[in-house]
Amino acid sequence: MDFIVGLGWYVIPFLIVLSILVFVHELGHYLVARYNGVGVDVFSIGFGPEVFGWNDKAGTRWKVSWFPLGGYVKMVGDADAASTPDRDALEKMDTDTRSRSLFYKTVWQRIAVSAAGPVANYFFAILVFTILFATVGQRYTAPIIQGFQEDSVAAKAGFQAGDHIKAINGETINRFEDIVEVVRSRPGDALDIVFDRNGHILTLSVTPVLSEIKDRFGHVYKIGLLGIKGAEVSYIKRSWLNSWWYATTETISMSWQTLKALGQIIVGAKSADGLGGPLRIAQMSGDIAQSGIIALIWFMALLSVNLGLINLFPVPMLDGGHLLFYFIEVLRGKPLSEKAQEWGFRIGFGIIILLMILGTWNDIVQIFFK
Asked: Cβ atoms within 10 A of the Cβ of 2, count?
């Protein structure tokens, strides 16, 4: 009984967060599709057999399905949940049905429909951050060195407590969190740090040491460290007039940090052990939920950013894959051949399956064997 209750602490927050994000994503597709006169047959949260649902006046079946890891919008002319065209059905369509099929819309209308899901996730994240920054506040620590850890390379390089970091390798520093992001991703690289010491602007060069840390979830990461300490974390409330700007920059920063991390994995500068799947997201959702509703809402916004970003990757079967085909169509003046698109979807399916296997394997290793 205790095991079931404990499992619920992880599964329930995960399902709530995931369902909200999937609904937002698919609603983006749905609204833009309907705006462009595309008929929508099914709007589903989850996959597999239907648990419950209803039909609206436009003929769309809204439903919740048994397998909750995802969702889809099936439009007129789709063969499946991945929006693969049903060629036989398309050829047999009458004039009225063709007018409601996505595949007979202009290429720019199809681009708008495909992009709408990821864009909706980004707008949702910005909205959540805007509300959080205006009510709870934005996490902020002044970029001032308060002290040093033992054997700190920064102290050995000549830094002192009270130094106010202004820039690193030409990149402006506004928060101590900015220092952490730059330094962690650059172990072994010399950094030129500009700082203010008692009104004098100085520059020192220092190389972060490669270190291993374990986060609150037990995951081990290899990062760069300078061995400096910042002030206690504080929260700055932003006004409702400008909180959206801080929310937007936070969202862009998160996307950029994710892209940099993936780039480091691709070139071999960073281990792929950090890639996680649904098990680890469920674990993190449960742990963060126990920290409070605010922490869970912030985590949901972070996941929304990542969901939007990942779906923009140019991998067939993802929204980015559809966008890739459509932009090629714009350049060529005609769509890719059916055979080329079919091979593209096969390759995309293989990539997604490999990533799912890798993520799930990492989850199992991190959660059960460490």
From this structure: 6
